[in-house]
Structure formats: structure tokens, C-alpha cells
Design brief:
Layout lengths: L1 E6 L2 H11 L4 H20 L3 H30 L6 E14 L2 E12 L3 E8 L6 E8 L3 E5 L7 E11 L4 E11 L8 E5 L7 E7 L8 E7 L9 E6 L7 E7 L6 E5 L1
Length: about 260
């Protein structure tokens, strides 16, 4: 496969780079600490101007880094899973027929506070039957309908209360069937958990389905019509029915999509 990626424009790239600064809060706080040490050194050497400059710089870095950390912590506490730190998500989406599909999600997480379940919003473009099943590390899965929202909630129960600092890996499956219209050719995922290390999206096409190229995209959110970045992948072997999109350190609230 030969990828060819590009930004929508310089504003899109600037927006992305500016937003990425939030995730460097630990380095900014460290820089502020180093600045305080430099302030003490300059004061000892009786260099008032350098002492003042270093003090202002270090205090600014500390306040900025702590504010970024607070913003990310608030985002996690307001997410669907405030008691979990999601480290990795793998999604395998398999087309069964033109009107049915199979969705499997594998999640690796660390428990921050005692927790009994995991929640994820989902939306299927079309109407049909949804069945949910536990595969590994869970006892049962339920679907919570939200009539006033475009999203429903899939709740995965672990069967016990996990203590703090426990690392847990679980897998659940959803089957969409009896659709009123053909399955649309894309798979999307909104990052509702900050500080995730990796997101993997995989699509397995129908046996008789061939593609010459597909696209990897990401948006500011799921309701944005304009993508920030797009990568067109030319498939060397049209019989290759497995498409993949691997995102390292996906950004919070961004919407990642693979289109074929």
C-alpha cells in the first residue's frame, strides 16, 4: 500500500499543532521547575536581571503546564469512563452482508478509581437490530438507548469491582443486522478519552468486494464536515480486503475515519 497524506490547509495544520501543546504539559511543568532552579542560581550569583527573567519565565511555564494538566484531567473526569485511563483501543469492523456487519472492540485500560463497567457511545448510520456480547474480560454487555441523542451507549460490565492501579484488557462485540439500507462505506471513531497511546481501526470487506484505494481522515469532531487531514492509500493488490488505520497518540475529541 502506498499512502499519500496531506493537510486541508495551513489553518488546519496550525489548529492541530496548537491543540497538541496541551499534551506537552509534563514537559512544560518540568521546564518551569528547571527555570526555578536557574532563578535560584542567578540570585546566588547576584544577577538581578537574569533572576527576574528566569523567575517570570519559570512561573509562566508552571502556570501554563498546570492549566493544561487541569484541562485534560477535567476532560477525563467528564468522559464516559472517568475511573479508567484508556491506553489502547483496537476496532475490527467486518462486513457480513450488504446490510449487516460485525464490530469488535478490544480495550486495554488502567483503573484509576474502583470501577465495575466501561461505557462507549456508538451510532450506526441506518436502522436495524443491534446485538451485543462479551468476548473476554467481561460478563455481559447491554445497550442503553438515548432517544434524545444521536448516540446510544454500550455498557460493558466486568462482573466485579476492580481496585485502583489494576490493568485490565477486555473485548466486546456488537452485531448490526436487518438494516433498512445498505451499510455505508466508512468506519469512524471519536476519541472520548484523553491520553490514549494508540487507536487502531481495521475494516474487513466482503469476500467479493475489491478496492483500489481508500482514505484515512481525521476531523475536529464527528459533526464537522471538513477534515483537517486526509491520506489516500493506493492498494497494490485489489484483492486485499483488510484495511487498516493506526493512530499513535490520538487527540481527545477528534474524529478518526477510514473510508473505502
Amino acid at each position: 500500500m502506498k499512502p499519500q497524506g496531506r493537510w486541508t490547509g495551513w489553518l488546519a495544520r496550525f489548529y492541530y499543532c496548537t491543540g497538541s501543546v496541551y499534551y506537552a504539559y509534563s514537559w512544560i511543568v518540568t521546564l518551569g521547575g528547571v527555570g526555578l532552579l536557574a532563578t535560584g542560581t542567578f540570585a546566588f550569583l547576584e544577577a538581578p536581571i537574569l533572576t527576574a527573567v528566569a523567575l517570570v519565565f519559570s512561573l509562566f511555564a508552571l502556570v501554563l503546564g498546570i492549566s493544561f494538566w487541569r484541562k485534560l484531567a477535567k476532560a477525563r473526569l467528564c468522559s464516559q469512563n472517568p475511573a479508567l485511563r484508556i491506553d489502547r483501543i483496537e476496532v475490527d469492523y467486518r462486513l457480513l452482508t450488504e446490510r449487516s456487519s460485525d464490530y469488535v472492540r478490544k480495550v486495554k485500560a488502567k483503573v484509576l478509581f474502583p470501577v465495575e463497567c466501561y461505557q462507549a457511545q456508538f451510532h450506526w448510520t441506518g436502522h436495524g437490530k443491534v446485538s451485543s456480547f462479551p468476548v473476554k474480560g467481561a460478563t455481559h454487555v447491554e445497550v442503553v438507548l438515548q432517544p434524545r441523542s444521536v448516540y446510544d451507549i454500550c455498557r460493558v460490565h466486568f462482573g466485579e469491582t476492580f481496585p485502583r492501579r489494576k490493568e485490565h484488557e477486555f473485548i466486546y462485540r456488537q452485531e448490526f443486522s436487518e438494516a433498512t439500507e445498505p451499510v455505508r462505506p466508512f468506519l469512524g471513531h471519536t476519541m472520548d478519552s484523553p491520553l490514549c497511546s494508540e487507536l487502531v481501526l481495521r475494516v474487513h470487506l466482503l469476500p467479493d468486494q475489491e478496492v483500489k484505494k481508500f482514505k484515512r481522515q481525521f476531523f475536529v469532531d464527528a459533526f464537522s464536515n471538513l477534515h483537517l487531514w486526509e491520506e489516500e492509500v493506493i492498494v497494490d493488490n485489489p484483492r486485499n480486503r483488510d484495511l487498516e488505520y493506526v493512530i499513535a497518540k490520538p487527540k481527545y475529541h477528534y474524529y478518526y475515519r477510514i473510508v473505502w
